[in-house]
Amino acid sequence: MPRTLALRRPVPRWSHGVVGGLLAGRDNSLAFIRLGLATAVIASHARILGYGGPEYAFTFSGGQVTLGNLAVYSFFVLSGLLVARSGMRLPVGRFLWHRALRILPGYWVCIALTAFVLAPSLYWYVHRSFDGLGGPDGPFGYIAANWAVATQRYDISGLMAHTRSLGVTHNAAFNGSLWTLRFEALCYLGVALLAVTGILTRARRAVVLITALLGWLVVRQAISTPFWGGAAKAGFLEVLYLPLVGGVTPGWISYLGFAFCLGMLIELYKKRVPVSDPLALVLLAVILVTLRYGYFYVVGIPALAYVLVWLAVRLPAPFRRIGARNDYSYGIYIYGFPVQQTLAVLGYPRFGMPLYFVLTMAFTVILAVASWHLVERPALRLKDLGGRPAGPPPGRPVTKPTEPVPPAACACTPP
Asked: What predicted TM-score, i.e. pTM, was given to this entire model?
């Protein structure tokens, strides 16, 4: 028997292969899934921003999670998978450069439009004057507080707080969705540290230990809290102030970091992770049961990580073409909230949820398309500024060429 045949492992009937072989190139539905997740965040916010009611899935899950939370955790799982892939194939400096180009230009344009176009327009609409728009809490103060992907100020000149006091809006932020980006940035820095120390390529068991530690923090809280309501109710939420990213809470670091590390593990052990329809259906049932009856964060998040990867591989071919060339999901995520708040100030929720949601999606998609074609994609053309790297980073093993690899994504900032 030839050596190559002797080393080949048979594929079990219950499996279509392994993640390493089926999710290696661009022939997958990751872009479609990210578009769906970004839309889910908007749908979840529509209920609370437009009408002050609980977000979708909050009641079903007994307060454990909302549809928006589910989308965010899903984003972090996919980010862990794809960013780990990027970290293993790029020198750490170029890796960080790529990550900065993916997040910062679109983010900066978004907060600039919010501060200098949206806020003055709404301020005039509400007050019929620009008196009181300036000062330390005005547009320039908003930019100064938030430029480093560390949203420290959510309102501008107290406008949203004022409309909230009148019952016009139900949240005092112009863009509440941006809070996740600081945690995304922390995950990038963590991957860079693992890459520069060689852990990603030579000591991946350390990632298993890191994931286990974060998982233990989640389990620790769940043991003492019946049913368990998630990171927002964690008992270790004291704020830490870190360079660049500003104030962060250890509770959210552990929960979002746990999801991110699960995605990393799938990538690091992709040659051992089977793609199985029966297993995916069982884990989907696990997700629903834990959402309904408790302890979703302990059991449901790991199940969610597998189901997301399974969907990326097993969704029919038409879904693989959606978003493959132009990725609007980041723009949808960062512009959805301010569009919803604008429509709320203008009074559109009174016409009913269907129209409110349709108008939100229409304006958000327009902004997302503009952001991609005018800001994000031109910025990504600078990824190889100075020339492509001649080879793998020093100290990393040389591997044979494989299928083209899709650009690394991030949780709420898809590629």
From this structure: 0.87
d(CA 242, CA 150): 10
For 242, the enclosing helix (H) or strand (E) is: strand 240-242
Q: Dig out the tokens for 333 from the structure.
A: 């995520």
**Whole-number pLDDT of residue 394:** 46
Q: What is the dihedral of CA 52, 58, 59, 64, to 10 degrees?
A: -140
- Res 401: pLDDT: 40
Q: What tokens does 176 get?
A: 């509440």
390 pLDDT higher than 90: no
| Residue 248, helix vs strand vs coil | strand
In percent, the amount of the chain with pLDDT more than 70 equals: 83
Give which of 183, 184, 166, 164 is closest to 174, Cα–Cα. Answer: 164
Lowest mean pLDDT segment, chosen from 8-22, 50-64, 248-262: 8-22
d(CA 287, CA 59): 15
pLDDT greater at residue 28 or residue 328:
328
Residue with tokens 């972090």: 76
CA angle (283 as vertex; 280, 289 as ends), nearest 5: 145
Selection from 378, 359, 381, 324 nearest residue 106 by Cα: 378
Instruction: Give, in order, the Cα–Cα distances in Å from 138 to each of 3, 125, 143, 157.
Output: 70, 16, 9, 5
Helical spans, DSSP H, in 52-146? 67-89, 92-113, 119-127, 139-146
- Among 2-6, 104-108, 377-381, 385-389, the range scoring the smallest mean pLDDT is 2-6
pLDDT at residue 412 tops 70: no
Closest CA to 29 of 329, 285, 238: 329
Torsion 354-360-366-369 (CA) sign: negative
C-alpha dihedral sign at 302, 303, 305, 310:
positive
| AA letter at 153 | R
Q: Residues near 230 by Cβ (< 8 Å), separated by ≥ 6?
A: 64, 65, 69, 255, 296, 297
- How many residues appear in the chain? 415
Average pLDDT, the chain: 86
CA dist 138 and 411 (Å) reads 30
Helix (H) or strand (E) holding 241, with range, is: strand 240-242
